[in-house]
Known about the structure:
heterodimer; A: 177 residues; alpha+beta; four-stranded mixed beta sheet; elongated; B: 575 residues; alpha/beta; Rossmann fold; Ubiquitin-like (UB roll); five-stranded mixed beta sheet; 14% strand; binds iron/sulfur cluster; binds FE2/S2 (inorganic) cluster; iron (chain B); Nuo51_FMN-bd_sf (chain B); Thioredoxin-like_sf (chain B); Nuop51_4Fe4S-bd_sf (chain B)
Amino acid sequence: MTQPQEIDVTKPLEREFSKEKYDQLESFINSLETTKGALIEILHKAQDIFGYLSRDVQLFIARKLGIPGAEVHGVVSFYSYFTTKPSGIHTINICMGTACFVRGADKIAERFKERLGIESNETTGDGLFTIKDVRCIGACGLAPVVMVDDKVYGKVKVEDVDDIINTYRRTGGAVCG
Amino acid sequence: MRVKSLAELNKIKQSAISAVRPRLHRDAPTEEKNILVCGGTGCLANNSDKIIQILTALLKTRGMAGQVKVVRTGCFGFCEQGPIVKIEPDNVFYVRVGLKDVKEIVEEHIMKGKRVDRLLYEDPRIKEKVHTQEEMTFYKKQLRVALRNCGLINPEDIYEYIALGGYEALGKALTQMSRDEVIETIKKSGLRGRGGGGFPTGLKWEITKQQEDEVKFIICNADEGDPGAFMDRSILEGDPHSVIEAMAIGAYAIGADKGIVYIRAEYPLAISRLTTAMEQARELGFLGKEIFGTSFNFDIRLKYGAGAFVCGEETALINSCEGKRGEPNYKPPYPAEEGYWGHPTCVNNVETFANIPVIISRGADWFAAMGTEKSKGTKVFALAGKINNVGLVEVPMGITLREIIFDIGGGIPNGKKFKAVQTGGPSGGVITEKDLDTPIDYDNLLEIGSMMGSGGMIVMDEDDNMVNIAKFYLEFTMDEACGRCVPGRIGTKRLFEMLHKITSGQATMADLDALKQLAYMVKDSSLCGLCQTAPNPIISTMKHFWPEYLAFVKDVDHPRGEGRYVPKNKIGLKS
Ligand SMILES: Cc1cc2nc3c(=O)[nH]c(=O)nc-3n(C[C@H](O)[C@H](O)[C@H](O)COP(=O)(O)O)c2cc1C
Ligand code: SF4
Ligand code: FES
Ligand code: FES
């Protein structure tokens, strides 16, 4: 295509969030003593509230702070903790730290990816699982370690992978601890 | 209530001691018992919280809640054997305690005074049960200074910290020592920074103090980016007050009234324990205005990292604290001269801080008596990989790697042969059998081609292929390089691609030569420590395991061994 496209800029490009969420973020920003140097703090808060940092949320923050959207995006893209895509109901964090690697974390990761049919940083079609590689959960004594949401699984074997997945499948979204 | 003098602190201490007496006075007969349950991340993952719940409930129904106290402590270090339950004053150390074992502990040990032998640690070498922590080879050669309170006190109770002498050092520094005396003491102790570089801490404090600026900052670097290391996390989880106390002492010495703890957002437990500890410290007046009745004001706030290894580098960390991308700056100026918002800023590591209060309390000479001539004190290592006793160990400087790996670590599992140990994380190198008897300190490790780094220690056995290990580290640094400078941005990528070419059997001898050349080039020309040290795993594995590189070039079908690394990054790679 060589011709510029017609686009309607007033139409939101993404799924919209409720006003309450934006209000919550706004009141957090208003409560700060100063916004100088607070961008990362605000992004953490926004990711807590919205689950991820969509383009709209990033622009909202930029306008609120009176800085260019590119600056906000520059920070968001620098840090691996920030994500711009929604993640599944359960996040499977596979530790790829050295301690876990020498105890076979790569094989565990392969199995998860094969079973769920996705690569890391992707979400399954049903929106149930997202796989993430993380660098050291800090429980190296239990290597290899997999953390699903907040629950840590230590000394994981390739054979355990199906069981772990099934625990979260059976009960859908309602698993805790 | 705010504590206004050392005398007042002492009064609180005297009344707080009763809560920890069973742990301190084993010889004095007492009816009271303390059950210490590990609340470190590793043991929590194995249900140690549920163990505490069941214990508490059982003790209550048996009417023993009055005499027996259940204490949730920080990490004991022996995470491999978790969950750990220790009973005091009996000095009995139970390992791998399951939920179903709790009833027996209460009914047999607590009610009848009979040890549950089944739950004791069995020393694999003598095939015998060991009753106490002191008898275990894992603990015998250790010396706990930075970890002194981990696994001993409840980190969420400031009174337990005070009972063990907590905040006395701060009181002493503020009311009895001049700022120069504090700095002189730290200098004389010989303490060097535990964050990797080993810069003398007292000297850094002195330089920061000397700057002419009304506003100064002290920052605790709790980013801990080294994958495979968790010592800073364990200190923050197990003994957060020691870091708070040390930061206040440092702030007094350099003349700062604001402190920041830069901590990884991925460490939720450490964040919560630290937050609790800060609130308690404020309530008792160890943070805030007019601390110990003096004119010294100081408070701390948290800033969260967001998952970038380079943010552990101090100039990058400061940029990140200011809400920017965490890219490093050229040094000089050093942060001590021009740091957070342009003001003199002292950045120290968590473990460095954990050493400060004891040095002030017990004196520089006491500390300097431990360790080697140029590296004083102890060092905490995170021992992991192919080793029997995975965990956190603290040893005096000067101990040999052989002692750590074979005595404390219990050797290599499954009857395999030791091959190498990587120290210093991705910035370090491998050490082989022939150097195992070198006494460990900052300088000796550099001499044998590795480094202290933050203290991650990964043991490899005969199944590990060293080219794959090097490739694993390179992928890490390639991912984590911030891209600010060309050698870092492109050099690490090319190094990784070359390693990939080698391990996929497509390389020639000329590629090996080129790899070596580029490794030195990246080392010499990168802007900051991250990529300057990135080639170290390549250089050191080439030096010690050259035949493994050759095997990939000469014989494609050569057995690759375990740890074959499938790269995540497929961009630009043909595999
Ligand atoms: C790439 C890179 C990563 C680093 N990561 C850390 C870290 O995670 N924690 C830390 O304390 N120091 C880290 N450092 C060292 C710091 O820059 C700094 O030297 C240290 O925090 C100073 O504290 P110390 O004098 O108490 O060791 C890192 C350095 C580099 C070059
Ligand atoms: S050496 Fe690496 S991490 Fe440091 S500035 Fe250059 S690219 Fe960034
Ligand atoms: S390396 Fe996996 S938990 Fe530390
Ligand atoms: S986490 Fe319990 S011993 Fe380390």
